[in-house]
Each structure stands twice: as structure tokens, then as C-alpha cells.
Design goal:
alpha+beta, 3 helices
Length: about 90
């Protein structure tokens, strides 16, 4: 299993995030968190490219998305709630 971070900017005013968020949660199963406004972390068997490809249908052409594999301890945070930071360290 990989720990995947998903960041996005939906640039078109008035966009509906509901479908995108529902799909992110589905991809993560029961293992996901939402640490920042436009960031999600999921645990999945999919690669970062597979997650990106799946989520592309939920964003418009002018939007931006970054999907990264952050498995292991090669990441750092600042200002997150302790329970969130602890969760990230545990996955």
C-alpha cells in the first residue's frame, strides 16, 4: 500500500467539489485524511499516476492537480493538529 497526497486548485468560480471529494474518499477506502483545504492523503494500492488519471474526470481543463507518493518518512509538516500529524506518521 502507498500513501498518496492529492493537492488541487479548482480555478473556475463556483465549482462543485462534491464529486471530486467523494471519489478521493472512495479511492482511500477507510484510510484518508483531509489535512488542508485542498489537500488529501489516502492509503491505496494505486500508483500516483493511477490516482491522477482516475481523478482527472472530476476537474476542468483550467484546474491543477498534484498527486505524490509520500510513503515512508520522506515528508514534513508544520502547523497541523497533533492528531493529524500523528495519523500521517502512522500510515
Amino acid at each position: 500500500m502507498s500513501t498518496i497526497m492529492i493537492d488541487y486548485d479548482l480555478n473556475k468560480p463556483g465549482q462543485n467539489y462534491d464529486s471530486l471529494i467523494k471519489e478521493i474518499k472512495r479511492l482511500g477506502g477507510n484510510v484518508w485524511c483531509h489535512p488542508l483545504k485542498s489537500s488529501w492523503v489516502i492509503k491505496t494500492t494505486l500508483s500516483a499516476a493511477q490516482v491522477r488519471d482516475d481523478l482527472t474526470q472530476y476537474v476542468d481543463n483550467g484546474d491543477a492537480m498534484l498527486v505524490m507518493n509520500i510513503t515512508g518518512d520522506n515528508w514534513a509538516s508544520s502547523g497541523l493538529q497533533k492528531d493529524l500529524n500523528d495519523w500521517l506518521q502512522s500510515v
